[in-house]
User: Fold these one by one.
Assistant:
Number 1:
Amino acid sequence: MTVLDRGEAEATPREGWRSLLEPSRLVGAAAVLGGFAVWEFYGRSLETNIFFPTFGQMVVSLIDLLQTPDFWDAYRQTLVPFVYGWISAMAAGVLVGLAIGLSQTIRQLTAPYVAFLNALPVSVLVPVVVVALGIGMVARSTVVFLFAFFEVLLSTAAGVRYIGDDIREMARSFGMGPLRRFRRIVIPGAMPAIMAGLRIGTGRAVVGMVVMELLLVSVGVGRLVSRFRARFDSPALYALVFTLAVFGLVALAVMRRLEVRALRWRGED
Amino acid sequence: MIEVKSVSKVFRRNGVTLEALRDVTFEVGTGQFTSIIGPSGCGKTTLLKMMAGLIAPTSGAIEIEGEKVTGSGPDRALVFQHFVLLPWADVLTNAAFGLEARGVAKSKREQIARAQLEQVGLGGFEAHYPHELSGGMQQRVGIARALAVDPDTLLMDEPFGSLDAITRQVMQRDLLKLWQETAHKTTVFVTHSMDEAALLSDYVVIMDTRPGRVAQIIEVPFPRPRSETLTESSEYREFTARLSHQLEKMQRVDMERETTQEAEGSSDG
Amino acid sequence: MVDTGTPHRDPERTLETTGFRPRPYVDIVTGWTRRYRMQALGIVLGVIAWEIAGRAGISPALPPFSAVAAAGIEVWSGERFLQAMRSTAVAIGIAFPPSVIIGVILGLLMGLLRPAEWILRPYINLALSMPLVAIIPIILLIFGLSQETIIVVIVLYVLPVVMVNTYSGVRSTSSDLLEMAASVNASRLLTIRRIVIPSARGLTLAGLRIGVGRAITGGIVAEQIVGVMGIGGLVQRLGGAFAVEELYAVIIFIGAVGVISLAAVNRIEEHYELPGA
């Protein structure tokens, strides 16, 4: 058998619900549960749980939290700027990305800025946003926007660029006008990259939301974080972070689903 | 009638000059099948693209029916070596693409496309996607697409170059049959296979390389209509062997020239 | 050349009847000089627009470029800035190497041993799919307002990425090569040494490249949240003091560092003739 032990395990992948029973999945699930167990025991072994609660304590706190109106209010307040920033980033990112991908002039003129903003940690722009726009709804949405925008832009531009010169040339040889070329070649051709960009951009938007909450502490989840930290209520803090992680994972899962769906239908007139 | 008049093409990229074609002159009679053959680097694809109107000659001109070629036109259609189908569209949409480029209404173009697909032997495959088809079938779609726009001139760029030997043979025979039994379109066919050229064409333009130029123009002596059994005849074999040798000699001379130049430390574009 | 007779130019078929729009030549003249000239033009235009907008007083948050440049010269040579830079650099310097070493080892382990892959996979997926920033308050709670917090955060940012890329590199080893090794009866160790590890080099380096970026990002955002040290802390303080010119100067510096380090790692990758992941 070859060193990397390929083939056997992948020989007969299971279908449907039985795929959950595959050894890789089972061991993975066991590993996670094992992790929880280790967490629990380690927590119990500590002198104090101020910094590190047991797994059980976190779960109790989580259930508690989910029943508090304060918690849901906080999320409601956090989600509004998230949605604003996220949606506008996706729209703007695709539009600007298309422009950059299609026009060599625009691409070359903006190249230094794109390279700069790509290499820059976006979080350092947050103080600038605060100085310019305060800490209200607009500022918070802008933070989310900035985190997501560049990813979508880069993916879209790349998608347009690498459609393949030969397809473009073929369309030109048949005399297809630019508008039709855009509809029938550019958009379908760039779609995989655009959808991937939207997915990654969503992940970044969630990160932006969390950064916004932690740096622009006024209302929402960020306020809860401060409160729990100040009180050294570690189970509640951990539980809160857990909900943030879940939110991010769910958002990504949804986008991934959409990505798969969209690519299956694309190209039909 | 296609007239190539003293066409030269020089490429300049990043300060390096490449003379692709030098003073190429020949004619392609209306309704004739002409092959252009030569070792790699002789500029045959460049020449074809100039006929298609996708590239401009540096000097000289190409005239079709007395009018200078200045761009792509409805009278010519290309068939590409790597098929260049739209991967996200089905066979019918692909075959109808050239018509769509010209704004033909959907029902009309689908009707025409269907007929062409039938003619190239793909009836029944309209709903398939390119990735589901073999190379030979994909190229048939490419040919159907070109024929659908009813061009005066068919320009084929090593159309069977990406196919395996057996498929290639089948395609050659089918193309011969198709061409002889339908409208006898003026065809310019780029290939590197002498067998192919001898079977299909009325005239063969043999090109030498570095720089690309016409070495010889040969009339293929076999009478029309030809059948596939031609390939078994001794005259055919003699003819092709003689010319293959010539091609081989040109290629070897070119290789030697390269190595002596490297040894002498000079480089010639 | 003999004309075979039947003309195929249909006089009825003109531009109007076919609806064909002839596309003229598109001769693309792209020398690299044009590209750099355009980019330079872009920078110049941006700077000019910035200067004009700044002078016009659109917003207190937008000082003219000249003011930023002037402040920049002061700030970049100032003690406060150098100290902040040192602090961040030290944090990254302490956190990055062990993260890479452990990441590569674990990545190799995952790639070579199925059980290791099954156990570690869910954790890596979690670390890469969740908003990792959310974990910073927890780290802050445990380690307090200290550099340890920054270091731990950087490790958490870098480790999963290096692991997953090394793992991919191992799994991407050509099965042809592995079959060949099996056919000559090469030992497992020899195969790993001569085939698997060299094959994994490309993606592993890509993981390092991404890791550098994430170390900088993670370190700085942690510093911003902690608020008192390093470049991140500096940026927060400048913002709080409404010292916009200095703030922009520092941001430009950070971006420039990012661009340069990215280019440097790309150059290293190219030097080994390895395609970037």
Note: Chain C has a mean pLDDT of 84.
Number 2:
Amino acid sequence: MAIAWIVRYLWVIPTLPLLAAGISALLKQGQRRFAAVLAIASMSLSFVLAMVAFGHALLHPERVFVNFPWMQFGSEWVKLGWMLDPLAAVMLVMVTFVGLLIFIYSVGYMHHDENFTRFFCFLSLFAGAMLGLLIANSLLLLFMCWEVVGLTSYLLIGFWYERPAAAAAAKKAFIVTRIGDLGLLLGMVWLYGQTGTLLFYDHGAGCMEHAALSLLATQTVYFGMAASTGIALLIFCGAVGKSGQLPLHVWLPDAMEGPTPVSALIHAATMVAAGVYLVARVYPLMSVPPAASPGAPSAALEVVAWIGALTAVFAALVAVAQDDIKRILAYSTVSQLGYMMIGLGVGGVAVGIFHLIAHAFFKALLFLGAGSVIHGCMGEQDIREMGGLRKWMPVTFVTYAVGALALCGFPLFFSGFWSKDAILHAAYGWNISRGPFYLGAIGALLTAFYMTRQVCYVFFGTRRKDAVPDPIAPSEAAASDPLEAAHESPTTMTAPLALLALFAVLLGFIGTPAWPWLQGFLEMRHASWDFRQLAEDGLPQLMLASSLLVFAGLGLGWWIYGRRPIKHAADPDALERLQPAIFHALHQGLYVDQLYALTIQRPAWWAACFANWLEQWVWNGIPLALSAMVKGLGWIDFSLDRWVVNKGFDEGCDSVAGSGRLLSRLQDGSIQNYLRLVGAALAVLALFLLLGRRG
Amino acid sequence: MSAPFLILAAVTLIGACAAMLFRGLVHCALALAVAFAGIGALYLNLGAQFLGLAQLLVYVGAIAVLIVFVVLLTRGGDSDSPPLSPAPRQFTGILVAGAIFAILAWAIFHSFAIHTPGMPVPQATIRQLGVALMESYALPLEVIGLMLTAALIGAVLVAMKEKPGPQ
Amino acid sequence: MTPLAGCLLASSMLFAVGLAGALTRRNAILVLVGIELMLNAANLNFVAFWRFGPHSGALTGMVFVLFSIGVAAAEAAVGLALILAVYRHTKTTDLRQLIRRRG
């Protein structure tokens, strides 16, 4: 079967941003226009190609792949490959579209920064790696792109590297995700060892295909756990790290030290979604039941669901007590990722991915809106310092409100409602436990509550920032105004906001139960318009219940924060007045960071000190001792040479000279002395002769 | 060991010691003359009449006088330091001389000379001496004549006052 | 002690005295004097051996001494002439000073 040209050239999609990154790396700081043009142009081209691929996938909803041999290990060949299937097509379109909008936004946001060129280089690098990750048909290729994505995350979080907080946050992100990546690597190695291939699909020989899966399912290792479960859990470790699930979530809130476009693109829409995507990709492995009990559900998926549920509630609780506008959104992201994991665990790929796509749009919208607010408040990020901004920044306010309602899951018109409901519906129907459902419901309430709190703090109430002159007439257009008053952001920033808001509304409709197009598309089956589906399966009750939860959260938030907003920035939060201890604990993220510092960082520090001691004294000691010995021998040799040989020689020469000097005194020119000597010699000679004669 | 011999030997030796010990040069020269005379007398005592007289003639008459002349001509030079100064050099000289004398004495006493009996006085007339000179020792005679001539001329040349060159 | 031994002893003493003087005195003339004494002691030896040894009739000892006296005279003349010449140049007959001047 001939392969369509788009599939054959699918690899161009990630390569274009990579090329842009490569060329940008060589540019000087002053060539910012060129760098921006390169990045945006490459991303636009990739978007166009992604749309073509999406169109192709629409017409041919099947999985097509191209594999090629890459490296030879002895007699074995390691192969890599790319594939195009509905999941990949949808993700490609999402990433390229959201990425393009964020690139355009960054032009305005980073306008004042002098490292503009470097920023776009890193952004393009990230985009290329992320797109490569999406189309990878090999776990190895996916892992390589995964690592590059992690690298660019590090580079971009620590973009303002002169700030120690940013540098520390970048390090933290890298190290924490590394812990997860270790699990992923172990899983990869195990998988390769068992199945001999890392290709997902390879005409029946791939590791996601039936032969490999049945092999893995039948093998049991420790505690009767099947190999498939073990590998699945290890791979999930990588997802836990990358997607910020409990317990490796600690890096995401600190990652907000990076510029806001970075937070929007990487830590809301795309990179953190890579973990979810990974689980979706290896879903066949995750969902294969153990051969011993074929009816039972997969243990791996159970773990995924529970971790997702716990994360969702935990993060939502902590988000309630945060003061930084971006940190609230960061914890919200962690919570929503938990929801996606619930969706994958209980309902399958389509459920999770639906929420992923919807979340990408409205979370990016929220982050970009937050960026607009920060830009307008001259860098202020504390929500207690803001207030009443809806008068000054109307476009931002409207789009932000749309995003917030979508996130809360306001019924019927916002995408969040449909995607979250799909998850709750699947959780309700999960036959193992209702736990995730209840946790998800609590999380939904909390989500509505904290988003309302945030919106009230930022946009309602009175303006709390001190150094504000009399309000000048607010204007919607851009930015030729003096920098003292809060102002609306320029069009390069507000246009993407508007576009994203539109999608935040419209996207919901591709996944409603009435027309589950997305689910059908992903599962490669036909979906039909059928309003009757809305009425079956307990769905109306569920929709009603979730709507009530949302209204309850919104109302509670409005009642506490909207009706009596705080007057001054130093005023304590309403909840803080009620329960200061609990509020403080939540504000500190339930002390998880402190726990890690105590239990992990301290022993690691001790181990490093010990290793250093070993290095200095023991491993180094041997060469040091040897060299000291050699030095000592050398010193002995030198001393011998100096004091014995040389001195002896000198003394010998001196004594010879001395005796010569002594003897030369005989030659003093005095005849009488000579005569005396002759006489003495004569006497001695005569004596000898006479004595000889005698003897 | 007859008495005359002893007396003569004593005189000679005293003269010799005096010659070596006196401070004034003229006194040394005169003591030397006495020593020479003593030796001449010893020759006579030993029966070498011509020799004794020749000794007196040559040594006492010529050489001692010559020495006196030279001493007088070189007056104004430094006077000699005390002969027996405590300088170690002087002492070494005496020591060496003493050692030589000791060895000679020891050799003498252990040699046949002790046991040689006395001999009658030999006949040594002038006539015999003359005949020996002319016959057996003619060559040495001529040679010594030549040598004396050369010495004479040489001494005159050496001691001659240098004529001032053309200036 | 035979006469011969006595003679030899006397001549040895004379010789020793002459040697001591030649080695000790600082004046050049006195060194010459010492040398003359040594020569005379040797001559005495010869005569003693002629007198008390065999073959006295050959007159060997006597003739030798005769020649020795002649040679001694020549030598004394030349030596003293040399001393005079040196004295004219250096105005001194002191051996030590002469050596010093010569270096």
Note: Chain B has a mean pLDDT of 85.
Number 3:
Amino acid sequence: MKDLASCALDTATQRGATYADVRVVDERGRALATKNAKISNASDSRSQGFNVRVLVDGAWGFASSADLSRASVESTAAQAVAIARASAKVKQKDVQLVSEKAVTAEWSTPHKIDPFSISIEQNLALLQKIDSELRSVKGVTLAETNMNFRREKLWFFSSAGADIHQTKVTTGAGYVAYSFAGSEIQKRSYPNSFGGQWQNKGYELVDELKLVENARRIGEEAVALHGADQCPEGAFDIILESSQLGLQIHESVGHPIELDRVLGMEANFAGTSFLTLDKLRTLKYGSELVNVVADARQEHGPGLGTFAFDDEGVPAQCTPIISNGLFTGYLSSRETAALIGLQRSGGTLRAESWNRLPMIRMTNISILPGEKPLTGEQLISSTDHGILFQTNRSWSIDDKRYNFQFGTEIGWEIKNGKRARMLKNPSYSGITTEFWNSMDAICSRDEWTLWGTPNCGKGQPQQVMGTGHGAAPARFKKVKVGSAYKGN
Amino acid sequence: MLTQEQAADIFSRIRKYSTADEVEGLFYGGRSALTRFANNTIHQNVAEENYGVSVRTVFGGRTARATTNRFDDQSLKDVVKASEDLARVQEPDGDLLPVPNASEGARATQAVPSRHFAETAAVTPEQRAEGVGKIVSIAQKHKLTTAGIFSSSESIEAMFNSRGLNNWHTQTSAEISITMLAPDSSGWQKSNSPSVANLNPQVLAEIAAKKAVESATPREIAAGKYTVILEPAAVLDMTGFMFFDFGGLAILDQRSFLNNRIGKNLFGENISIWDDVAHPLQSGPSFDGEGVRRQKIHLVEKGAVKRLVYARASTEKMRKSEYADKVGPVEPTGHGFPIPNEMGEGPMNIVFESPRDPKSVEQMIASTERGILVTRLWYIREVDPYEKILTGMTRDGTFLVENGKVVCGVRNFRFNQSLIEMLSNVEQMSTPVRTSGEESFDMVVPAMKVRDFNFTEVTKF
């Protein structure tokens, strides 16, 4: 790999690049799925390739190829330089990068069991067992299960001397029970929607999820939703269980803190952000209880945003995003850090694969658990009247990340500190900062889970990336509930 | 570019290495480049060349797929083995059909026009930069900031199988998307075509700039039910949410909003929709994920859903099901996705039928006493899968219309709107045009004037 990279870097610099980096990626994936007991997906994928990113005349160029021959490496590097020269024809000023020490390093995702070492028969037998549990419930009309593994080997070299090799391992598993009756389709997912739980971990994740043990309950809840009352409309105290709070963080904290959005670089597709530069260290984002970090370090946990170095060779870091309610930090790269006068990149540049340009992506954007002991049961018992929201069903937010609306698969009315009737079609909506300022309780560490969101889309051409979100159940006061069905 | 002869050679080696009863090779890839600009600067500029083959093996009712982007002998042996290892250990599925032969499904209703244009394949970074330069000039002329993309590509898609099927498709594509930003407003335009000659960056930039300028200092208007004029991109991104429900398997799975509704007058009488890969404004290959030729299908006729689309296996299942005599003609239509898959099939070449009396957007505005003109929608998600209630936001050019005129820009709305009701409340339509959005695949759709569109909240800008 080093020879390949040297060839590309030499070609780029000889042709005028003032900076160049090379990423080589070798990835393998396996996806298995069942639908009503039949195998609906059994696939294996392998992809290898490299890219060259260059700065020439103060502008960026990027070219990629699956052909790793010397001739291809040279021509791809030359192509990147030619593209950069074209970029330089439409620029306002030269790109500047904050400095970063070039290092030589090697790192792998800690994992106990290589997911590719588990036999396919064992994988399929587990999915079939879950399927039969789900469909043993009368009224379940469609059962879907899935299991996904990925191993990604990455090499990063730069003209400044960086030489980094990382191997990331990802595992995901989950299932959904659907029930169609009358004029309703209801569903329940476990352990979360979006294909279940996803972490940078080995097969041990599948063993930890208690998939079979929960299947019958999930099937029963999907069917029971038909008989549940419609979620009422009005202002309520609400409790979000941790996976829904994870998605709330993703949409209303994670995206608006991306500095490329803030600086207008994503205006055409993903949008911009309400978090303009004047709001840094002045905006009261949330209540005193709200503490959010962007933490890519291994010690944060096995999130989809955990690594040792980002895709421009910057070490993983923990950036305080919201500190006791105050907005304190953005997600940055070497280029965007320079644009706002930061001394160093926050290390958040990542690419979907070898053929995509690295861009600012969420790492693990997590709300820290409450410091005082508080269980989920205690949170409910301290709530007079409210609604508990579980497992995301729909999600939408405007392109500056102010107005959001979420629906969940199931809700529960809380009355006099007890979980009372089941509610169907629950939804809530609000304005980001008003919502986070209404948070008055969050459970402690024992209730905190690091969830994986495997399907975050951003960029042109679009890239799909996995992000991590640690969260514990939390309560929000007087939130607007039920407007998704208003007028329909 | 990978040639048909090279692909055929790769497939012959795959066959040689395979011990399976049947083998299929799905080839994909090409060359693509995208120039991205923001803050009146080209800030990202990328190019890619990649080809892959997805190998499906079949052993007596058991099948699986493996994919690689490397075509040396060892990589091909590895990909065949990976596919066979996944297939062999499965329980046989009695419903799995043999791969189609060369003549099966070959009833093409009409020839698909060539979608490969040499001029588009040859677009250079300098040409894209020149186009972006023109867009930036227009932004600067109006004292605006612009962001967007100019992309071009040349791609192949091919299907070979061990029963002699040999389908090959090559095409080009070009796309321009432009956002113009003012301090408190924005405007947007996007266009996509197999031929770059059909794209005019200056015209698109001027329209986007006009929207940004005219929606400045937006007023806040209360949420509620309004007559709306949805430009084609807004219609595309809304209606795109329903077409995956038009597959036979979606009915069999009971996950379609069309369950118990086929043949009924679901939408207004003025709504008729086709799936037609050969339409001159459409794009894509003439065959589906199994290699079967795509047929022209009249999905919605005067407001009633008359036809579904089918993969071969879904056809067989539907014929044996309780729904068989309630869903219209049941036959393979050439709309299957590559096997194995969870979705079955879907119509991907949607064409709305032109109305008898088309109205331009300007005529729709002129006929509106009070309403909202919507350029584009954003972050649309399904709230209710059976009533097809969708939520989302307006974006990049939302205007108040009063007494037949655009009065001012307004703050963006959140909507929660049943798609069924929306298509029942269409008062006027334009001539359909090829349209590109962000939430759906490209389609040929009209602008629509719709009454009682349900806005439920207003955002801060």
Note: Chain A has a mean pLDDT of 98.
